Amino acid sequence: MIHAYSVPDVRAAEAAMPELATGELMQRASQGVAEVAAARLEEHEGASVVVLAGPGGNGGDALFAASFLALDYAVVAILTGSGAHEPALRAAHDAGVVVLESDSPSSLSALDEADLVIDGMTGIGGRPGLPPGTSGLVDAIGDDAYLLSVDLPSGADPAGLVASDCVYADETVTFSLLKPVHLLPATEAACGLLTVVDIGLTPPAAPAVSRLTFSDVPTLWPVPGPDDDKYSRGVLGAITGGEHYTGAALLGVTAAVTAGVGMVRYVGPPAPTSLLRAAVPEVVFGDGQVQAWLIGSGMPWEDASPEQKTAIEKALASELPVVVDAGGLDALTSPRSAPTLITPHAGELLRLGRRVVSSSLDDDWVRSNPVAAARAVADALTVTVLLKGSVTVVVPPSASGVEVHSQSDGPSWLATAGSGDVLAGICGVLLAGGLTPEDAGAVAALVHGVAAHDANPGGPIRALDIAHQVGRTVARLLTR
Ligand SMILES: NC(=O)C1=CN([C@@H]2O[C@H](COP(=O)(O)OP(=O)(O)OC[C@H]3O[C@@H](n4cnc5c(N)ncnc54)[C@H](OP(=O)(O)O)[C@@H]3O)[C@@H](O)[C@H]2O)[C@@H](O)CC1
Ligand SMILES: Nc1ncnc2c1ncn2[C@@H]1O[C@H](COP(=O)(O)OP(=O)(O)O)[C@@H](O)[C@H]1O
């Protein structure tokens, strides 16, 4: 498991270290930045380095790193704020670093010609958005330069919530503890490769964000034992697919069967039913006793058959765990007390938000702060929201006290029709197997992403191949 901690908790962890006041912590941080920069410049004698240094501690890290790098490389520092970290600026001057103001004409040409640029404009004290007057500097960085951000990409929200103009780094070097900026959807892509340098901070008690890794799968995946039978392992009831979207039923149910559910019961109209009878002979048909329901994939509410509508209303009124996907979201009109995991993409979350949070939400509501949007819907309906995207977040209601989970395991090829139906099927298996909605959503997102990779490493993927791959991927993750 990877954890990220809130900025106040990171500051408290720093404050607890006697080495903060002596400047030793910053020495460790800047030495780490310089070592990573030097490693990236290997084989490149005579390389030129430019440091963008802001007025705070982040600029201090960058300027000290500049002073270390000046032993081997030609280093220019550009001051981007009013003032600079004094001891670090002195060290840079003493080491022979050429220091420029941001409006100096030489700044733009230095950036254009740099082999490596260290971005130290803002760190955990940064407000979202590039500091005034710096976007021209960022634009001047040559396409071939390696862009290394200190702690986080300048302009990115340290809390990882608000989307804003920021640096897009090739690599970010952070110190001992990850912050939400490194793992959440509004900001993760801007961090590039993430490298952690240990400066000796002790992790705070509670994380703000968690991310499962491969080694968490054996702990969480429901593996059957000798006393299990198909019922004790969990029966999943699927009310998915319609006369028009027969494929959604096939994809979700196939994924559930290959992911190792005890049994799937399917409730749906004739077309998807006959497709499933032919393609997935393991499935049983019609309403019956289940441990969890999966409702809504490929089933716009207006297309649902009367039998499906009745079954959905019964499922939602029950005390059973439910995964609600796609069209099923329209049936969710009041809070649920039983475990509930909803799996919208951004467009579906916006539509739901307009119904249950406020009808006046603007089109940018989800994109501008995805976690807050998911949280608002989670609180309004007392459900856990799995918001899909290249970074998928699983956001429980605030009252649960459970942290946000964030997964980013799949290739961008996953953006293909039907792959969400596969994910919903895996979520259903895990709820039927007794996992909490938070764990089910996070493990399902991980396995779904890895299965997509395994289905065709490095190339395009069709959703049905992911569904067929899931079982082998689960085996690989359980036995590695
Ligand atoms: N202390 C230590 O020993 C250690 C510290 N460490 C390092 O220090 C970093 C934290 O340093 P920090 O607290 O000084 O905050 P930092 O992010 O540099 O920015 C503050 C300055 O930027 C300004 N500013 C912010 N946003 C802005 C905007 N959008 N537009 C314009 N201005 C903006 C802000 O202005 P103000 O808010 O005052 O108006 C203030 O002047 C941390 O990320 C890590 O790199 C590590 O070495 C570990 C040990
Ligand atoms: N750029 C991307 N990189 C990685 N995964 C992505 C990307 N875009 C979408 N995904 C994933 O692909 C799936 C798409 O789901 P969804 O939009 O519901 O598709 P559908 O409704 O066609 O099944 C989700 O699991 C989502 O997290």
TrEMBL record:
PROSITE patterns attached to this UniProt entry: YJEF_C_3, YJEF_N
Superkingdom field: Bacteria
Xref: InterPro entries: CARKD, Nnr, Ribokinase-like, YjeF_N_dom, YjeF_N_dom_sf
Molecular function terms from GO: ADP-dependent NAD(P)H-hydrate dehydratase activity; ATP binding; kinase activity; metal ion binding; NAD(P)HX epimerase activity
Occurrences of domain YjeF N-terminal (ranges): 5-207
Residues given in the record as (6S)-NADPHX binding sites: A248, G298, H345, D421
Annotated catalysed reactions: (6S)-NADPHX + ADP = AMP + phosphate + NADPH + H(+); (6R)-NADHX = (6S)-NADHX; (6R)-NADPHX = (6S)-NADPHX; (6S)-NADHX + ADP = AMP + phosphate + NADH + H(+)
Record domain YjeF C-terminal: where: 213-477
Residues annotated for AMP binding in this entry: K388, G389, S390, V391, T392, G420
Protein's UniProt keywords contain Hydrolase: no
Keywords per UniProt: ATP-binding, Isomerase, Kinase, Lyase, Metal-binding, Multifunctional enzyme, NAD, NADP, Nucleotide-binding, Potassium, Transferase
Family from the record: In the C-terminal section; belongs to the NnrD/CARKD family.
Subunit structure: Homotetramer.
Entry protein name: ADP-dependent (S)-NAD(P)H-hydrate dehydratase
